[in-house]
Structure formats: structure tokens, C-alpha cells
């Protein structure tokens, strides 16, 4: 369905104006168009109940025994059902438009004759060359030709009943599959058909789509179509619903029995093109499985009629298996959804029209785009309900402001650009790094840091109501704020302005107590004294670096600090022959009343120990590292470039 | 002399010319040298960069990186655009390729470089304008007067603006020597007299000429003096005369205790525990500190068979060493100068005060003339030593030269100096001294002590006037301190002054004490007695110290780990789990902050983890500058519309423009989630940023600049009134 764009302004704008307006529209929305919605598992979102295939309510009560009960009950159901149910076909009409129907209206018949056959394909027996096929005629009806859908009453349509007994296993042959064969014969000479397709197409489409065909002439024409009721695996293929079947014109000769088998038809590798529906003639009918003739639909009709017990579990669990041909069933209702029906807020069953009104350029202009389904126009997600759609738009496309306005035909959604949108990233913080510096650096799987997500969250939720999307003045700011809290932006290193990679999040790399430059600064500052000798300078530098590294703040830490100093730098002090200077430093600390005499003794004793130790193992690895340390220190002590 | 007179008529003109030309030549030489230096420095930096990029490139090479092909960009939905190349020749068909557009990447906000800091850094006022700020041609065109006014603020001095009149010591010496060669030549030509003299010191006419060219540099006599001073300094080897030789070096000399410890005493900052710290320009020397430790100094037991104690016991004669004055040669503070190799002007960013002011200051502290204050000092020594030396001095130590043949030991200069240092700390514990010296036995030490006794100062036996220590101190104080704080709080105007440790010996902290006048408490760094009435006693909380129940919290102070011993401020140094919540700034218990483009303007700062209300977030760090300097800098910042200035107290301002930490990126808001509080932290005012309300992960931080910048102290007052729990 293509969107219909209509200008709301009644005046006929000039071409330039339209173009200028278009430009403005693009200016407002173009930049915002390039966006990606966060990826959610939609079926798990609370506001998208229709996308959730299973029910959780029963889980609490679940017992294993229920499985057996369920299967037994189903079996019983199935038996009773299979005995009593019928397949009811109500034919709306045969649509086969000729060009300019109004001109030839008097010549046209208003009905065609339809024959419905039940085709049973049986299993091969040993002697058979091909599968035996049985055709059971179920009835002939006159079907209106090109009826006006809006006027006809449903009761007036011809209908056919196929007893479900027909689908019961046959004694002689095991039936492989059942299908319905529709044969329409239309009086009048056949003249032309542009249809080279030899396959019979089984396709469903929306009934209100008119088909056109360039077929003229008189004489009897036969169209056939075949639809599978149960496939090889005895899965039910035809559920309740309205169908439009594309018919295929056939030659005069009747269908060869041998060629008309299920396999033959479907073995065609080429899938029918979609256009067939619009070009070829179609037959429209409503299909219902009924308990009794004339009664209302029996609820669990869609259950397959299993004949093989061994298969029961498997078939049951896969009600919608792979289909042999694309089959779009309009308004089809699956079992689960039907059972769910009671819980869903009742919404109008009729088709909703959703109008999008784009506000831009100071709200003065607008363009309306109408869509008649509940797909999100930005990410084409089928939200299935208006509430879900609105919630989705609001949460996933926060670059825009959406406000809901009730509309006689459905809903109007005003779309405007959210000026307050903060532009920071919303979504998985891991994906942030596909930004600037990282855009092209990822190839294949990469190691990621662990991210913890809250998996279960049950906040108090108000009942879903459309009123929450109405344009309200108060709390508007709150609405436009980002819903996700946390690190949803790309951070940068404060020293280099380089983006922070996820593995760097945890370390506060720029908050050292003693940054490089400060260490160098203290060293050069001491080096600049002219009347301090080199021994004093070295001890002072070592001590300053030590204090800066450990950040001592209290007098009562000093005893410990001095002992630690010996531990860490003792080897250097000894190696560089600074022991007496170190003692002077300790005495000075004592003069400042910061260390006790005991500490001086202890520190000096430890220094003597250290002094003795490396001499012994001077050539060992320890001595080597010592030398390295030394040179490193010298590097450090090299004076900084002068200004 | 007649000749000189004659020369003086035409000589000065000639000399002036000569001075000018030589000066210009030297300047040019210097410029070339400097250019070379810059070049080589640039090249070495370049080399460093290359090495680092090599390392990075190596790392990148180990990774396998390929471009990711993006499947279909959204833009392809909207009509495909194409690129066509037309050759113009018919034989070549035009080439068409679909145009793929890359999405625009938003550029990051502007950031001027800054250096990271976790503690404040004091800098001097800038006397010259370092650069003329550029903020776009439009602004300069509109408002040309701005730059003029700016330059006027610096008395017209702009960095690098040294067309003429610029002369420093180095150039001066070079100039004189160069001119001296001229004069030698001239002298030889004209007459021979005075040659001996001019060899040593250049003739006066040189100084006269220099003085006339550079009149602002002083009279010829002053210049001559200066020259003498500068050249003399260079003559006796590498070290200036006042520098003690390295005690660990081969040239160690036997010097007095004060001299050995002089560098350590004068450079050590008792508040930062560092030498020549970044924050405090004035360092008190320790000899004015009171010694409080009452350790037992002597080992009661002999250290071995040959211990000196046996000697003492043997002899009965007593010899009390006489007290003598210690000659102290070295006075004055350390002087910082350029190391000979380094070049350029004076260091502009030296955080300490200049050499001159420092000298005078520590002169004052250490007692300007040795003689005047020496008695004073000695007395102080007496008083300080009296208490703890009781134990050792009560056991009478008899010093006597032993009748036995003395072990003859060579005392090197280093050993002798070390002995004198240690005797001042260990007194007569010769065993310990011997242990520390290492190379001598206690007997040798004892003998040396006897020999030295005539010149070693020792503490006298008598207590002079220090009252005996009383034990009631704490209780008395606890009864009064609350009232005191209350008083302080009520009487406080909006002015808070910077704290300077007070030092007024022999006078109690009364109205003349600088701490009292500045309405500050005396801190542990003050020279006054620990019983001083103006001292803040600390808290005795057992809780978290985050309510007004805590006297520290009430006084907008962080708990002092040396005063508050019960709240936990003095425990768990390594862990972040401190029971006291009122010591976060000093411990640097900041929160992890992350930087990203702000939602409001420029860069912003975001909190990594959720925080509670009133939790400490970060300290606002930066350069500490004077109010005047802040005014000058502020003019430029206002033009830039970007200021990191933050009022600290009446004397100083924190400027995070050049140095700072990440919190500098916090933006202003009238409805902020953080608040700033200036607190007294162990004698320093520091700015803490705290959470105004609970915050979630990833929230951007804001505080109200108006309070902090305009009047930080008013803000503190408001906070007090607001009754924050």
C-alpha cells in the first residue's frame, strides 16, 4: 500500500512554492530521518501484547499432568468435531474485469458456473506408477460475475458445504493430501490472454483490490484453481477467512488426471509472480469450518485433523508450519490470538485510518500522510494496535514529538521535531563506539566488556490508555526527556579528547595524584637551587616523589611514611651513596617533631640491611633491575626543557 | 689622571657606542644560541613523539582491522545520487558511480589545553602579559581598547617584548668581559698604567658607560659591586660558598649541625611534608618548633664489651662540659638560581616567592643577625629540651678523658658533621650515635664528644620558665570550645582570610596574633603552644561527622587526623571505608567522573556511579592566585566568556584554567545538582563539590556559579542557615 500524500492547504500553490515548501519539509525532517531505532525484541515489550505469541498467565498453575489431559481432551474433541463439522464455502463472486465494462454491460452475463471438486491424492501402492488421485465432486453453483461488493447482502451469496467425513481416511487408499479444485466456466469466446504462466497459482489477497485483464471475446472459457486443505503432513492449510484465489485459464481439453496431481502442480520451481493476482481472474469466497449446517463458527476449527496418531504431538505443536505456497490470509486469526481475545482491550475491529500530520516551519504548514495500517512508518514494524503504535513511536523515535488526536476515521498523529532531543546516544552503550574513532575499526567478533542489563522489571504500570498520548501541556518536558538513564553517551578522555573505549570505563586514568608533569616539576624545582648540594637534592627528590605518590596527609602517618620510604627507595639510596643524607633527612623530620627517634633507628637499620643485600647479589637479576631503576630515575631527573 | 680627564670628554661617547655595539652583538649571539636550543629541543621532542607513535603503530599492526561495509545506508532510499565523469571525448564513455555519502560526524567542543592536578598549586602574580589573547578578528576590531587596557594592567610589559633595556646578570657579565678586552687593548695603546688593576676588575669607565646606556640598572658603583659579586661566585669551584658540600661526597667538610641540616630545615614544608612544596611559599624552620616527644634517649644498658659506659663507671671524676655558643655561619634561606647551563629569564612559574623575599623572610624567622637571636634560640632549645631530657640529664653523665690509651680514630669531615647532627638529637646516647655513624665505636664517639665538649651546645639542667605540663588541658578545652565556635560563627562577617601559621615567640595568641585577627583558629602548624586558647581542638565524634553535632562540621572544617582521633579520620589510610565522612577532600575520595559533550554548553562532566545526597564528589582544584592576579586574568576570561575562577577566600582565588581537575567541566545551572563549599582542610582552604541531591548513573553535574564565583563565603553562610542535615 503506497501512501497517499495530500496537501492540506486548499489553495493551489505554484510550482516553486511547492518546491520551496518541500525543501522546508526536508530541512525539518531530513536530518532526523537518518536515524535508527533501538532494537528491541518486540514480543517481549509490554505495550505490544499482540506480538507476544504465548501466555504467561497460565504458567504459574502449570502442571505436567495437564499435558496428558490436554492431549486426551483434544483427541476427544477432534473425534466429535470430525464427525460433526463441515467445510462451508460461501462465494462472493468471480472477478474478471473486461476493459470498459460499462460499454459492454448489456452483453455481459452476471454469473458464471462454478464446480468444486475435492481432490484426494492417495499414497502409492506397489503396483501404481503414480499416485492415485480421486476427484470427488462436491457441487456446482452459479456465482455472480463482478458483483458490487458494497451492495450485495452476504446471505444472498451461494454457498457449498463439504462434509468433514470426506476428509476421513479412506479404507482402500491412504490419502496423502486433500485439496479443493475450483473450476469456473464462463460463456463467451476467449480471445486473448497475456498469461504465459502454466502454473496454477494459489494466492490470497485483499478482496477490495480490483483486477484488470485484457481479455475480450466470446465462447466458453474454463478457469481452474486448486487449494490444499490438508497437506502431505496432514496439516490444515485453509483456516477460516476470506480468500481470493487467482484462477488460471485452461485449454479446452480437461485436466489430465495424471498431471493434475498435487505433486505435479507444486513441483513447478517458479513461484508465481505477485502480479498474477492483478492480471488473472480471481474467485472470492469465504471459508468457514462449521459444526452444524447454518450454525455459527465452531471455535477451534483450525485444528488439523490428524489421522496418524504417531504424528499427533508434532502436528499439534506446529500449527503454522511451512506452507507450500505463499498464502496471505486476510484477517486470519490464529488459535492463540483467538484465545487471547478476551484480554485485549477492545479496539474497533474495522480498519483504522492513521493520518500523520507533520508540523514544521512554525506549525504553519503541514503535510498529511495517511496510512491504513498500523505499521510504523519509520521502521515498518507492525504494531497491530494503535496503542502499541503510539507507544512505539514515542519510545523508539524520540527525535520527534508525537501527539495523538482522535479522528472520526481513526487516528491522527501530529509529528514534529523534538527540539529538546538531547542528541546523545540512546541505546546500547556498546554501540556508541561505532562513532567517530571507531567507525571502521570493527571486523567480525570483538571482545566486549560485560554489560549488565536489568532483565526483569515490573514497575507499576497504569492501564494502557490512548489518553496518555494526547497533547498535554503539563509534564511535557518530562515526556520529552530520555527514558533511559545511564551511560548513554560517548565519553572522552579529558587529557587527549580521544573517545573512551568500553574497556577503559572502569579506570579513572586521568585522576592520578602525581601526574607526570608534576613529578617532573618538583624535580626541576629542586634541581634549580644553587646552594643545595647534589646529595641533598637527590634525597629531597626521592622523598618528594614518595610523598606525592602516597599522598600523606597527617603528622601521625610520618613514622610509617619514613619506613615505607626506606622500603621503596632504600636500594636506590644505598646504591647512589646517599645514606648520610638520608640520615640528615630523618633527623630533620625529627626536628620538625614528625618522627620519633625509634623510627630513625628502625629506618637506618633497615637501610643498612638493604645496603648489605644488593652487594651480595649485585650480578644477579636483582642487581640488574636495580640498575634499570636507577637509569629510569635518572631519566626522570633529567631537567625539563627550559622555557 | 689628566689623561683620564681628557678621555672622559670624548671617551664616554666612544664607550657608549662601544657598549651599545657589544651589547647588540651579544644579544644577537644569544638569540642565535637560543634559536639553536629551541631547534634542538624541537628535534628531541619530535624524536620522542616519533618513538611513541611507533609504539602505538606497532600495537595497531598487531590488530587486524578491515573496513566494515555498510549494507545500505538510509540515504539510498531517497533517490540515488550519482557521480558522473565525462571525458569530453566521444570514444570514452562517461563513467557513472553511485554516490555514497557518509553521515556527518558532530565535532567535539573546543578545549584549551590544561594540566591535570589533584591538589591546588600556588603561583606568583604575573608581572608581564604572557600573550595577547586572540579571540577572533571581529572582537579585536570592535573593541581595540581592550588589549590596550590589558597591557596597561601589566604596566605595559609584554612577554618577549625586549627591544632594548633588557639586561640580565648573564649578559651583564658577558658584556663587561667583552668590553674589558677592548679596554685592555686600548690601555696598551695609550698607556700602561693601571694594567694590573684592570686585569682583575675592569676599569670604572666600563661601568660608567654601561650605567649611562642602561640608567635603570643602577649607578656605576652598584654595577661594579654586582659584577664583583657575580664573578666571585664563579671562581671557587662549582658550588657557591654558602653551599655545604655533600656529606656523602668526597669533599665533605666538618661543619656545624645547623649547617648540615640547613637545606633540609629551610626547604621542608611542614604542612605538605614535601621539600619546596607547590602550595606554601613560606616554610617555618624547625628550631622554633617545640619538641614534644618524651622518649627515653639513652640506652640504660651498655651496648657491648667496649661500651663507653664502662669507662664512665670507672672514673669518678666528673667533668661537666661547658656550654659554648654555637657559631652559626649559615643564615638565611636557600637561594634558588639558575643552574649554569639553563638559559632564559627568571622562572615565571616558580610557586615560591622570589629569592630575595624568601631570604629576608627566613632571616626573620631564623633570627636575622646570629647574635641577636642566638640567645633567644638557645633559650628556646633549653626550654624545649628540658622536659624530655629530664631522664637523661638526671643520670649525671660524667665526661672524662680516659686514662687508658684512647683508641685513636680518624674523624673525617663527614663523620664529624654527622656526629654534631646526631648529638643534637640523641644527646648522650653515644651507643646509638655510634650505631648510626657506623664507622665508629661508641667509645670513639664518647672520646670525640669529650674533645668537642668545648664547642657543643647542650641543654642546661635548669628549667627556666616553662610551666610543667598539666593534664587537665583537654577537659578545660572541651568545656569551652563549643562556645568558642559559636562565637566565631556569630561574629563572622563574610570575610574569611587565608591561614598563615602564627609565630610570635613568648607571647600568647592574643589580639595581636595574626590567626586571631584573621578570625582563624590556630592550627598544629602554628608556633604557639598546643594549649593555645585559639587552637581548634578537633572533634570527639564516634559517628560520621556529617551533622552539626560534629564541631568540625559546624565550623566548616574537615576533621584533622591529628586532632580528631575518635571519628576514624586518622584510621584506615589505605581503604576508602572511613567511618568519618568529613575527611573526603584531604583523602581525595573523589567520585569517578567522565567527560563528554555537555547537554547544555561545551564540555560537561558526568558521574559514573550513583551518589547520595551530600556525598563528596570532587575537589575543585587549580592554581591559587592572588585576588589582584584574578582581577587581571578575569578580564581576559570575561572576554572569552569562559572562566574557571573560583573565590577561595579574601586573599586567594582558585583558577582552573591552566591547571585543574575534571570537575572544572561542570556547568552552571540555577537548578543545580551539586553545591560548592569552601572548607578549612588541615590549614588550607579548599573547595569541595558535593551532591545537592541523589543522582543517577550518568547524570551531568551542575553547580551554581553565582554563589561560588561571586562570593563563596556568603554561600557557606547560606548553607549553614539552610540546615543541611
UniProtKB/TrEMBL annotation, chain A:
Residues 617-629 have a biased composition (Basic and acidic residues). Signal peptide: none annotated. Residues 633-643 have a biased composition (Polar residues). Residues 294-328, 617-643 are annotated as: Disordered. Residues 353-420 form the Polycomb protein SUZ12-like zinc finger domain. This is SUZ12 polycomb repressive complex 2 subunit b. It holds the Pfam family Zn_SUZ12. Residues 479-599 form the Polycomb protein VEFS-Box domain. GO terms for molecular function: chromatin DNA binding; zinc ion binding. The keyword Metal-binding applies. GO terms for biological process: chromatin organization. GO terms for cellular component: ESC/E(Z) complex; RSC-type complex. CDD domains: C2_II_SUZ12 (cd21740), VEFS-box_SUZ12 (cd21551), ZnB-Zn_SUZ12 (cd21750). It comes from the Eukaryota. Belongs to the VEFS (VRN2-EMF2-FIS2-SU(Z)12) family. It comes from Paramormyrops kingsleyae. Keywords: Chromatin regulator, Metal-binding, Transcription, Transcription regulation, Zinc, Zinc-finger.
TrEMBL record, chain B:
Its EC number is 2.1.1.356. It is found in: Nucleus. It catalyses: L-lysyl(27)-[histone H3] + 3 S-adenosyl-L-methionine = N(6),N(6),N(6)-trimethyl-L-lysyl(27)-[histone H3] + 3 S-adenosyl-L-homocysteine + 3 H(+). Residues 319-396 are annotated as: Disordered. GO terms for cellular component: ESC/E(Z) complex. It holds the Pfam family EZH2_WD-Binding. GO terms for biological process: heterochromatin formation; methylation; rhythmic process. Residues 356-367 have a biased composition (Basic and acidic residues). Keywords: Biological rhythms, Chromatin regulator, Methyltransferase, Nucleus, Repressor, S-adenosyl-L-methionine, Transcription, Transcription regulation, Transferase. InterPro entries: CXC_dom, EZH1/2-like, EZH1/2_MCSS, EZH1/EZH2, EZH2_SET, PRC2_HTH_1, Pre-SET_CXC, SANT/Myb. It is an enzyme of class 2 (transferase). Residues 384-394 have a biased composition (Polar residues). Residues 591-706 form the SET domain. GO terms for molecular function: chromatin binding; histone H3K27 trimethyltransferase activity. Signal peptide: none annotated. SMART domains: CXC, SANT, SET. Residues 326-338 have a biased composition (Basic residues). Residues 482-584 form the CXC domain. This is Histone-lysine N-methyltransferase EZH2. It comes from Paramormyrops kingsleyae.
